[in-house]
Specification:
Radius of gyration: 17 Å
Number of strands: 0
Number of helices: 11
Order of helices and strands: HHHHHHHHHHH
Shape: elongated
Largest sheet: none
Distance between the termini: 45 Å
Oligomer: single chain
Helix content: 55-70%
Structural class: mainly alpha
Length: about 180
């Protein structure tokens, strides 16, 4: 509800101030923070309000503390980026500081490879997809089958110079160690 109140009172802050909403969010556990991001994503997509409200939310309201950034919140942030693809690069830029490693059982890579619209994100924005992957994939990926390898192949097909990046090399090493 805090996110909805925040949206309804944006930009005048009539119901709650930005500081009050941030204080409320800081008291939430990981599940509640994740749910709050789901609500934000729903608002941004239904109201087409990334440029007006979404970006503002991350710059002014979302808590900056590390304890508020979890694998669950990272999953929701990734969902926001891929579900709001017309603003993909701007969203990636704004959510990147809040991303943490996702669980090895995450479906993020599966979403990117098994949905044609989402797979096109890798084609259109290879550098941004690589940035996301590097931020959220830790040292273990046993549950990702060959999805990571497919995405990395697509990235270098679209922008070969990225094969020289430390991020691509690290992720490639992980992807081949799975098999």
């Amino acid at each position: 509800m805090a996110i909805q109140f925040c949206y309804w009172s944006y930009p005048r802050q009539t119901l709650f101030t930005n500081v009050e909403v941030r204080k409320i969010l800081r008291k939430f556990d990981s599940d509640m923070l994740s749910h709050s991001l789901w609500i934000l994503s729903d608002i941004v997509n239904k109201e087409n309000s990334w440029l007006s409200f979404g970006r503002f939310f991350f710059k002014n309201i979302w808590p900056k503390e590390n304890f508020c950034q979890t694998s669950k919140t990272s999953e929701r942030l990734l969902d926001l980026a891929i579900e709001t693809s017309e603003y993909f690069t701007d969203i990636v830029k704004n959510i990147e500081p809040y991303l943490r490693n996702i669980e090895p059982t995450s479906i993020f890579l599966y979403q990117l490879t098994n949905n044609e619209d989402k797979y096109l994100l890798t084609e259109k924005y290879p550098q941004e997809v690589l940035l996301l992957l590097d931020r959220v994939i830790g040292q273990r990926i046993e549950s990702y089958d060959n999805s990571l390898a497919k995405i990395l192949e697509k990235i270098v097909k679209e922008k070969p110079v990225l094969k020289n990046s430390i991020a691509w090399q690290r992720l490639h090493k992980l992807s081949i160690s799975v098999f």
